[in-house]
Design brief:
This protein is mostly beta strands and about 450 residues long. The longest helix has 6 residues. A hairpin with a 5-residue loop joins β17 and β18. The chain has a five-stranded mixed β-sheet, with no helix packed on it. About 5% of the residues lie in helices and about 50% in strands.
Length: about 450
Amino acid sequence: MYDINVGEQSIYARIFYKSYSGCYDTSEIKLRGIEAPVLQVVEDWKLCDPGGSFFFDLSEKTAEVLGDQDSNLFLVSYFESAQEEQENKNPLSSMQVNANLVQSVYFRIQNRQRASCFQTGNFELQLGSGFISLTPENLATCDEGDGYGRFDTSLWLPNVLGDQTGFKVSFFTENGSILPTPLPDYYRNSNANTERIFARVENQLEPLCFSETSFELMINKKQELLLQDNYNLCVLEPFLILSPAGVFDTWEWQDSSGKVISNTAEVSLTAAGNYSVRVSTSENGVSCENSYAFTLIRSQIPAITEVKNQEWSSSNYLEIMEGGDPDLEYSIDGVNFQDSNYFGNLPGGIYSVFARDKMGCGMAIYEVTLIDYPKYFTPNNDGYHDHWQIKGVATQTQSRVLIFDRYGKLLKDMSSLGQGWDGTFNGKTMPADDYWFSITLEDGKILKEHFSLIR
């Protein structure tokens, strides 16, 4: 064996005659070394195609098959089978591959100057079935408060894929956080009122074959129904009609037993008790319901049964007692009303006390007298406290008031109807001092106390 380099090289042969060794001839033999191809590492060829099949142009793979070898020196041919490659027949320029199938391609690299100088190899063609891009619908749910709600995640996959199969879907939030797989049954939006969800759709056989899309999560704004917690209906009125403001698709009013009493925006109520109304509104393909409860109170006409009091003391009071209606307000002048039925620190006098239903179901009036007396008076003609008189006995025309000095001397005998005592005796002003009085009421009751004259 004789090794030669690539290229042309000469060797010489000398031929001798057997019978005479000095007689020979010499010939030149030219040898040519042909460069052999070097087999490269060829990667499988994978593509994504949404059409279901694809024609691979095999010439696009030639540069990778050759590497840095000269295409003018080497010829690359492609075959559908190993046998055709061995027989070097039916070479291909392209090959059709259907989605989700793997097709082997066989190739031969041969020296263009000598067909017997070649190398063979193969690689695979693979066409991943591409995701047919859809436009997902935006999804909505009901507001559970402050623009947040729960979304049924079982709707997300069909919303993204339609009826396509063979794909893996991953979901991401707006900030890029990946959601768990599988998804929880419900997802609560992290942004108030609206949030965008992104989806990455991958071919299960070829993860490099993917598409991305997105959809919006929307919160249907809660529609408020303006209802009071309590409604009052006077016993004299036969019914109460409620027709609260609000535009809703459905209405359902129920009484305390659950009986439906109206399916319109208006309801007529008669009996006292607890009621509820359920309303719904459809928006963005979702119907959202809200429920409200309220109470109807039948107000009774007020009736004052008694006025408790304390008189002739330093802490006189009136306490108005009524029977039946708990929602009343009270007054002792008919102008200023209060929730409490107690009025303290009152001077003597005749009072008209009032008990009024807050919802306008009538008012009761009761007259009561508090007997009392001024603890002092200042008879200096300044228009204030210039006379002293028992209070609350003006209607007792037969009662008499007697005034004495500290020694028991009678200074004044007067009716309970006049201005009272001006602090004089027989036309002379009496000195500043304590004085005593007694009064005999029409019922025979006698009251005695003292007061001060101040100058």
